[in-house]
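Researcher: I'm preparing a figure for a lab meeting and need a structural model of a single chain. I don't have an experimental structure, so a prediction will have to do for now. The sequence is pasted below. Please return the structure as C-alpha cells so I can convert it later.
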Amino acid sequence: MRIALFGGTFDPVHYGHLRLAEEAREAAQLTRVLFMPAHISPFRLGEYHSAPHHRLQMLLLATRDNPHFEVSDHELQRGGISYTVDTVRYLRAQHPNAELYLIMGADTLAGFQRWRQPEVIAQECTLLVGVRPEYDLNAALDSLPAAIRARVHPVPMTPLGISASAIRDQIRAGHSIRYLTPPDVIEYIIRNRLYVEP
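Model: Understood. Here is the structure written out cell by cell.
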C-alpha cells in the first residue's frame, strides 16, 4: 500500500491543491492521498485561520468524488501546533508495512530544513515535490543534506497559479472565485460567510 500525506491549512482548499495531489498520485501510483488539515501550522503562528471544522468540511466536499482521496482530522483532534514528524510517526504506527510519501510544493521544499526533524520525515517518507516548469528545483536541492536529497521525487506540476490567500482576497474584494475552487466549496464559503472580514 502506498499512502501519501498532504498537509496544510487548506484555507480554503483549491484546484491547485487538488491537481497537485492527483498528479502526485499518478506519478507515484499511490493507493491513496490523505489530506490532513493542520490545527495550527508552525510556520503561520499568529495568523488568523478559519475554524477547523470549516476547513475540514471544505476538504471533505472538495475530495468526495475521488476514490483515491481521503481526509483525516487527526491533527485537528490532536490540537496544538501540528508538526509533520508527529503525524508521520502516527501514520507509521497505523500502517507499519505501507510505503509512505509526503506531498509538497517545490517552494515548501526550499524551507524543509526548518521543519522539526526533517531527517526523520525523509527517512520515513519519499518526498513527492510538485515542480512548476519555471521553478529551479536544483537550488532547493542544493540546500539539503544528501540523505534528504536522495528521498526527493520531482512531480511535474500543472502551473495553475492559484493560492488560498488570493482566493481570500478575491472574496473580500467582492470578486468571483469561480474556477479557482470546486463549486461545492464556493457554496459552503458563501453559506457560511467565510473570508468576508479581513
